[in-house]
Amino acid sequence: MTGTTHRRRSRRDWVVDTLIFAFALLGSLLLYDAGEHDPISSDLLAVDFVSGIALCITLWFRRRWPVQLAILGALVTTYSDAAGAATLVLVMTVTIHKPLRATVWVFLANAVSIVIYTGIRQKAEPWGVTIGFSVAIYAAIVGWALYIRSRRQLLQTLRDRADRAETVARLQAQQAQGRAREEIAREMHDVLGHRLSLLSVHAGALAYRPDASAEEVGGAAEIIRASAHQALQDLREVIGVLRAPVGELPQPTFADLPILVEDTRKAGLPVELDFDAPGPLPEHVGRTAYRIVQEGLTNALKHAPGEPVRVRVVGAPGNGLEVQVINPAPNRRTGDGQGLIGLTERAALVEGRLEHGRTPAGDFRLAAWLPWPA
């Protein structure tokens, strides 16, 4: 198919076109009746009537050829009174839907047709009055059409802005969901990493201690079973959150820190805990402190199983919270692991700081300072 594709006329378009056609037809009949008193031949009156009705019929096609029909209307109105109403509608259509340049050309064409009309119809009124009155009507119609056009453009602009705002909001929501999923991935690393470290330690103990007593084997097996069950439960929670459109992974709290230390002790890692942090701690700061201790204990289980670990968590409102995990690490490298990189980012997010490395005594030290508002 060639040419411009036009949308199918809607029910509203049919109603509007019918009303406009009826208005133009009524106007044509009234103007024709008024023009019968002009000193012109009956043949011209007949052509006037037929031309006016024909131009009214063309209004059904004004959306497809607005400029062409408006120029045709200017030609017909050089001699026809009955075509006046339809021509006004065509001029208005061009003004609303076409560029300003087309409107200017159509207006000038109709202005010229008015001058020719006064010579052909030989009106009783002075030609200046006829021309001035006709031009004023056309100018009023053009002004009204320009107002309608500007109002439509304003509404379209507002709709476009609303669409853009909706798109931006949707993208921001997707970005927020992406950040949430990234946070969930970190939580999965921290939680499952600790659980699996416990499994590894006890499984290794069973493998390398064939002389262990039945009681020791049973205790280690029970810890392995409980840790595996809890790891599976944590994994189910993570998968459930990832599948859901909106949700949060259950987060540990600062109050759970002694429980974490006790579970690590049960895994066979001697932990000395210095815990002195009275007062309400902000939730995000407390959770960060928990994750730092958890990562330190997990690393101790990996790199120095069975060696004593010192954990210090002290602070007060207004002074900040100090978190420190020290353990022997004879074979530990000081390079950044993914867990330590994540901890550094966590500390920075709460406006704290974190450092790690070997002490002069050769131990590995993980330390952080976190803000604690007064």
Automatic annotation (TrEMBL):
Spell out the Gene3D superfamilies in the cross-references.
1.20.5.1930, Histidine kinase-like ATPase, C-terminal domain
Q: Which InterPro entries match?
A: HATPase_C_sf, Sensor_HK_TwoCompSys, Sig_transdc_His_kin_sub3_dim/P
User: Which of the seven top EC classes does this enzyme belong to?
Assistant: transferase
State the reactions this protein catalyses.
Answer: ATP + protein L-histidine = ADP + protein N-phospho-L-histidine
Enzyme Commission number, as recorded: 2.7.13.3
Show the GO cellular component annotation of the record. membrane
| SUPFAM superfamilies, per database record | ATPase domain of HSP90 chaperone/DNA topoisomerase II/histidine kinase
What parts of the sequence cross the membrane?
14-32, 44-62, 69-96, 102-120, 127-147
Please name the Pfam families in this protein's record: HisKA_3 (PF07730)
Q: Which UniProt keywords apply?
A: ATP-binding, Kinase, Membrane, Nucleotide-binding, Phosphoprotein, Transferase, Transmembrane, Transmembrane helix, Two-component regulatory system
Q: Signal transduction histidine kinase subgroup 3 dimerisation and phosphoacceptor domain: from which residue to which, for each copy?
A: 181-245
Q: Name one GO molecular function term.
A: protein dimerization activity
User: Under which name does UniProt file this protein?
Assistant: histidine kinase
Which source organism? Kribbella qitaiheensis
